[in-house]
């Protein structure tokens, strides 16, 4: 029986992101993976675990072959945007139990370029089979599901459209500090409200952008940390949860599965939300940020609207900086963005973020972070608590 080992994130990287018209998704996977390995300073031969989803008929087998890997531990869990937090949890458990030594998580997508080239259309629905057959024929699109949930929160708790707009405004303010963000020009609440209506109550700037890009994260057992060129970021605890597929089976539109995954992650990490220095939260729509903040315990249920006011989410002067790179609303969103949350969290904890670097009182670097991904239409959630080495 192998004793359980501590697990650290030792390498992170992004591929080229934003507008990438001359690369395939496989190439973006490879670019991010090579950069993450270089970031860690570890040889590729040490990678015996691989996790990926969203590409190929036999993901992650096809991507592993493309990367020249022959892993003895694999994961292809696919639960939407929360996939990567769930995979990171699975990888950490496998490493801790001795089933793998170094695990690579990799993702790449040309979602934007494919539409421009006519290789695909915008995703309005995930399909019309199974439980979705009762929703898709009636125009119940992906964004409509989020819009309905947001409207329910507004009715239940008096949350205003201006408060939701503040999420977009503050995400853009953080993106303005990030030279890699796709959109950096500041916006106001009035700008958000004046945009074209997409799905009531969401106007355009309530919705994530569409980009190309990839990301990679390398996790390793504690005995390999000393061989790495970077400071380790330790995985303290994680949690995962699934909620529903059909909207009719969602008990409460104002409660996301992060209420469960967050509680589990914080309990297993042995920390409280109040101890966290910043948060990376999946933000395909502004309401996702607001309700996830509630469900992770940063404020009470129904208090998210008031919480996001007064600049609390900003890197500069915010009480709880959120989506410090600008998030999916302003930085990049190539689909299934959860891996980007982990990359940004690790970079922040290592103090590598330049102008957008989060600082604690007195100028010290942050010590604790949480990354929480959401999949589908609040169908799934994965939450990971991380600590600086």
Description:
The strands form 2 sheets. Strands 3-2-4-7-1-8-11-10-9 form a 9-stranded mixed sheet, with helices on both faces. The protein has a two-stranded antiparallel sheet with strand order 5-6. It has 389 residues and is α/β, with parallel strands linked by helices. It is built from 12 helices and 11 strands.
Shape: globular
For the report, how would you describe the main beta sheet?
9 strands, mixed
Give the count of helical stretches: 12
Order of helices and strands: EHEHEHEHHHHEEEEHEHHHHEE
Q: What separation lies between the terminal Cα atoms? A: 27 Å
Which strands sit side by side, in order, in the main sheet?
3-2-4-7-1-8-11-10-9
Mean pLDDT: 95
Structural class: alpha/beta
**What Rg is obtained from the alpha carbons, in whole angstroms?**
19 Å
Strand content: 15-25%
- State the low-pLDDT regions, or none: none
Strand tally is 11
Please summarize what this structure is.
The protein is 32% helix and 17% strand. The protein has twelve helices and eleven strands.
Structure keywords:
two-stranded antiparallel ribbon; 389 residues; 12 helices; 9-stranded mixed β-sheet; alpha/beta
């Amino acid at each position: 029986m192998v004793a359980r080992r501590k697990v650290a994130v030792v390498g992170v990287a992004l591929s080229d992101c934003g507008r990438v018209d001359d690369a395939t998704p496989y190439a973006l996977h490879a670019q991010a993976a090579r950069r993450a390995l270089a970031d860690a300073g570890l040889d590729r031969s040490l990678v015996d675990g691989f996790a990926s989803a969203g590409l190929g008929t036999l993901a992650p087998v096809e991507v592993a072959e493309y990367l020249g890997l022959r892993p003895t531990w694999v994961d292809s869990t696919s639960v939407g945007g929360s996939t990567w937090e769930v995979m990171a949890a699975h990888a950490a458990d496998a490493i801790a139990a001795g089933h793998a030594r170094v695990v690579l998580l990799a993702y790449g997508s040309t979602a934007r370029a494919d539409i421009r080239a006519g290789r695909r259309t915008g995703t309005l629905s995930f399909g019309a089979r199974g439980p979705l057959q009762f929703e898709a024929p009636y125009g119940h699109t992906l964004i409509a599901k989020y819009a309905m949930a947001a409207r329910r929160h507004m009715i239940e708790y008096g949350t205003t459209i201006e408060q939701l707009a503040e999420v977009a405004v503050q995400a853009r303010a953080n993106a303005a500090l990030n030279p890699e963000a796709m959109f950096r020009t500041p916006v106001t609440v009035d700008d958000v409200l004046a945009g074209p209506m997409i799905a009531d109550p969401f106007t355009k700037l309530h919705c994530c952008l569409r980009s190309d890009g990839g990301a990679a994260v390398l996790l390793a057992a504690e005995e390999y940390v000393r061989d790495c060129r970077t400071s380790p970021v330790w995985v303290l605890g994680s949690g995962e949860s699934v909620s529903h597929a059909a909207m009719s089976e969602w008990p409460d539109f104002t409660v996301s599965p992060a209420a469960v995954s967050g509680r589990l992650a914080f309990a297993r990490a042995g920390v409280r939300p109040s101890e966290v220095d910043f948060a990376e939260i999946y933000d395909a729509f502004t309401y996702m940020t607001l309700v996830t903040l509630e469900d992770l315990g940063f404020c009470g249920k129904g208090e998210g609207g008031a919480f996001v006011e007064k600049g609390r989410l900003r890197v500069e002067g915010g009480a709880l900086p959120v989506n410090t790179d600008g998030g999916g609303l302003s930085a990049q969103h190539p689909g299934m963005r959860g891996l980007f949350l982990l990359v940004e969290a690790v970079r922040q904890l290592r103090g590598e973020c330049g102008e957008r670097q989060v600082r604690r009182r007195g100028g010290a670097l942050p010590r604790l972070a949480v990354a929480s991904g959401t999949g589908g239409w609040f169908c799934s959630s994965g939450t990971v608590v991380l600590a600086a080495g």
